[in-house]
Amino acid sequence: MKIREFAKRCHLSVHALRHYEALGLLVPARLPNGWRDYAPQQIREAVFIAMSRQVGVSLPVLADHLPAYRAGRMKVSDMVEELERMLQAIERQMAGLEDQRRRIADHAAWLRTRAKAMSPPAASWPPARRQR
Q1: Same domain flag for 40 and 86
Q2: Other CB atoms closer than 10 Å to residue 120's CB: what's the count?
């Protein structure tokens, strides 16, 4: 099937499909006129690639997993385990960012209290301009 029909069936853009092909993730056959010819079974691969990218699977990791997926050696449980590892990594990142947010808020509060203690009285700030 030609790329436009394939894109429609996969709910992907032609641009995305060409990108996946350029990266070697999808390999359509070529017709004698040079047009891409996608096999119906490649819809499953294209959707797998798109969904993996949507959840943040890196291209190198995706490229490593595709042969097992194509061969039917990748089980649903394998995919669930990978997604759970990704969730744990995100949770660690979020915890680290929350700690960083607290430290920044604490520093800002500390600086505000120091600035109030060190600022000159309101009547003298800003200094009056000299007249010539």
Answers
A1: no
A2: 9
Residue type, 80: V
Q: 3-state DSSP: the chain helix, strand, coil percent, rounded to 5?
A: 65, 5, 30
Q: Which segments in the chain show pLDDT lower than 50?
A: none
31 is written with which tokens? 């017709």
3-state secondary structure of 29: strand
- 74, exposed or middle or buried, with CB in 10 Å at 0-12, 13-18, 19+? middle
Taking a C-beta distance cutoff of 8 angstroms, is the pair 12, 50 a contact? yes
Residue 123 lies in a domain: no
Non-local (6+) Cβ contacts of 9 within 8 A are 1, 43
Are residues 25 and 66 in contact, defined by beta-carbon separation less than 8 angstroms? yes
Query: What is the pTM for the complete model shown?
Result: 0.69
Cβ(74)–Cβ(66) below 8 Å: no
CATH number at residue 23: 1.10.1660.10
C-alpha distance from residue 68 to each of 8, 52, 76, 98 (Å) = 26, 14, 12, 37
